Amino acid sequence: MKIPVKILLSRGAVVPTYATDGSAAVDLRAALPENEPVTIAPGCRALIPTGIAIAPESREVVAILAARSGLAIKKGIRLSNGIGVIDADYRGEICVGLHNTGTEPFEVNRGDRIAQMMFMPVMSADFIVSETLDETARGAGGFGSTGVK
Q1: What angle do CA 51, 52, 53 make, to 5 degrees?
Q2: What is the mean pLDDT of residues 72-92?
């Protein structure tokens, strides 16, 4: 799959790359002015620019942004919205909302790997209003109705 990438900013923006041959996602890097890091205090959020925009060839694909495992586990840095969804028709800059759930301030510097981006197929739904739904063993049970064990 070809994904055209446009470099929008000269603040260290780079074309995303896969870290290894087996990587499912590419690393996204912070595109910040040199010597102007962004510090995210514990409990706070920041929107970090990547300096890139993409143009997937098909509306049947979505780019999903996810936290980097090491940052999440070691530093408490996660995406502020859980995951990011970059629709196939979005042409603006990809920015990453980071949330510091850790206990120490976290500094983001130019070029730091801040998130991952993977591409997934999209299935569009055709909603049909219905008076009834089929029965299942679970039914309407939710929010822990199946227990812990």
Answers
A1: 140
A2: 96
Please check whether residue 136 lies inside any domain of the structure. no
Kindly list the distances between the CA atom of residue 29 and the CA atoms of 46, 49, 127, in Å, as whole numbers in the listed order. Answer: 14, 8, 38
Task: Tell me the CA distances in angstroms from 93 to 75, 77, 82, 137, 138, one per residue in order.
Answer: 26, 21, 19, 45, 42
Q: Is the pLDDT of residue 30 over 90?
A: yes
Closest CA to 103 of 53, 41, 38, 28: 41
Q: How far apart are CA 28 and CA 19, in angstroms?
A: 11
Distance (Å, rounded) from C-alpha 5 to C-alpha 25?
Answer: 15
Which CATH number goes with the domain that contains 93?
Answer: 2.70.40.10
The number of domains in the chain is 1
What are the percentages of helix, strand and coil residues in the chain, rounded to 5? Answer: 5, 35, 60
pTM greater than 0.85 (yes/no): yes
Token pair belonging to 30: 């912070």
Asked if 86 contacts 26 with a C-beta cutoff of 8 angstroms, the reply is no
Helices (H), the chain: 69-70
Question: Is the pLDDT reported for residue 108 higher than 90?
Answer: yes
Q: Is the pLDDT of residue 146 over 80?
A: no
